[in-house]
Write a structure and sequence with these properties.
By secondary structure, the chain is of the alpha+beta class. It is built from 14 helices and 8 strands. Strands 1, 2, 3, 4, 5, 6, 7 and 8 form an 8-stranded mixed β-sheet that branches. The longest helix is centred in the middle third of the chain and has 46 residues, at 189-234.
């Protein structure tokens, strides 16, 4: 079995859809640029042809006489590109790729637009002037924009069509030029052959650039898919937030100081239950219970850091920053209790009692272990105190106990609670003031 994420057919399909979508978006941008460009050119033409002061009157009158054909051509191009733009939008919405024949036809049409401009220029100014007119530069514009199609073959095709059409136009224009035209490079067919070759080479270079950009897109998509797969796989063993954090962090080991609220939850009398049940039944029970309560932790911006067999440790405020870790921790704890009651009432789990302890303080968070094997962990006495507070729920017949620091962090958010005073906790040299919430 290969380690590549593309070994799976579903992953391949998703990858291909993502690549097609990126190509269509790039094509959409290309057509949008063409629309704006020809809209701008139409405005410039109208400005020069109909507004006095920009050009000499003789040249302006010559431009104005051509307005039916010029504006008709601009209008046809804008309508055509608008149609193409709409078709691309529909393809993106339907997650479909355009067929190769349609893309070739579109390439042929667009590569022929500069040729239409050349013939129009020849009709207005004469064949020789058309050969030196700026309309020739439109070939390079369309070829360069074809890069956004991210297809080497389409770029080469556009370059070949443009080169052949220009050479044909030059041959026709030279044939129509009379013998009275002064001799010079512009009247020699080899000169225009070299121009055609330059146009074709521009298409070749554009194709190579398009292929490089496409390769970069593919590398980015593959990296994103590999990362998503790692998060999905890794997230089955740790919280997705922790998986994200670990994947973004440098390989070096280290940590950062964070103020967090730590939650410990324990299942009461779990050992007695497990002793009388099969391993399969115990596994189903734990998956049902943890599946419900872990979801609650995630909903309240917390992460489950460790499963402890018959319980777990959750953290609010790391690895993602949380301005109200105590409130989110308390809300999660109260909803966990409610979820367990619901599971008990519906008979989805055997009668279950739980105990929860909450404590807040500063901890070190980060990676420990070796370069080969790392674990995101929370280090600090806060963790130990939270675990001892959870154990104290047995002594006070409570389902939820919180420390004084959590009570202070809640402010007015906690309406009622019972002050149990200073409670000695195992492993702590000083007693901790504890409050009973449920």
């Amino acid at each position: 079995m290969t380690d590549s994420p593309f070994a799976d057919l579903e992953v391949r399909r998703v990858y291909q859809e993502s690549l097609t979508r990126e190509i269509l978006r790039s094509e959409f941008r290309r057509v949008t640029i063409l629309l704006w460009l020809f809209g701008l050119l139409a405005c410039v033409y109208c400005l020069f042809a109909f507004v006095p002061g920009f050009l000499g009157s003789e040249f302006r009158i010559g431009l104005r006489d051509q307005w039916p054909r010029v504006l008709s051509l601009f209008g046809a191009i804008i309508l055509y590109e608008s149609f193409v733009r709409g078709a691309i939008q529909r393809l993106i919405a339907n997650r479909r790729a355009p067929g190769a024949p349609l893309r070739l036809v579109n390439g042929l049409v667009e590569a022929s637009i500069p040729t239409l401009f050349l013939f129009m220029t020849a009709s207005a100014l004469g064949p020789r002037d058309a050969l030196v007119a700026h309309s020739f530069l439109f070939y390079f514009l369309f070829i360069l924009l074809s890069i956004l199609q991210l297809d080497l073959r389409l770029c080469w095709f556009a370059g070949a069509v443009a080169a052949v059409e220009y050479f044909v136009f030059a041959a026709v224009a030279l044939g129509l030029s009379g013998p009275e035209v002064p001799a010079g490079p512009i009247t020699m067919l080899p000169f225009h052959f070299m121009r055609s070759l330059i146009v074709f080479m521009t298409g070749v270079i554009a194709g190579l650039i398009a292929r490089e950009i496409r390769n970069q897109h593919e590398v980015s998509l593959r990296a994103a898919q590999q990362r998503d797969q790692a998060v999905r796989t890794f997230g089955q063993y740790v919280s997705p937030q922790i998986a994200e954090k670990l994947l973004r962090q440098p390989v070096e080991l280290g940590g950062e100081l964070r103020k967090v609220c730590v939650l410990f939850m324990d299942i009461r009398n779990f050992s007695q239950y497990a002793a009388g049940e099969s391993p399969q039944a115990v596994m189903i029970y734990l998956n049902t219970l943890f599946g419900a309560v872990v979801e609650v932790v995630n909903e309240h911006q917390g992460v489950v850091n460790k499963f402890l067999g018959d319980g777990f440790m959750a953290v609010f405020g790391a690895p993602m920053k949380d301005d109200e870790p105590c409130r989110h921790g308390l809300d999660a704890a109260m909803e966990i209790i409610a979820r367990v009651e619901t599971l008990n009432a519906t008979g989805k789990i055997p009668p279950t009692r739980i105990g929860i302890g909450l404590h807040m303080g500063e901890v070190m968070t980060g990676n420990i272990g070796s370069v080969e094997r790392k674990e995101y962990t929370i280090i600090g006495d806060v963790v130990n105190v939270a675990a001892r507070i959870e154990q104290a729920t047995k002594d006070f017949q409570a389902r939820l106990l919180i420390s004084e620091t959590v009570r202070a962090g809640l402010g007015a958010a906690l309406l009622t609670c019972e002050d149990l005073g200073l409670v000695p906790l195992k492993g702590q040299t000083q007693p901790v003031r504890v409050f009973k919430v449920a």
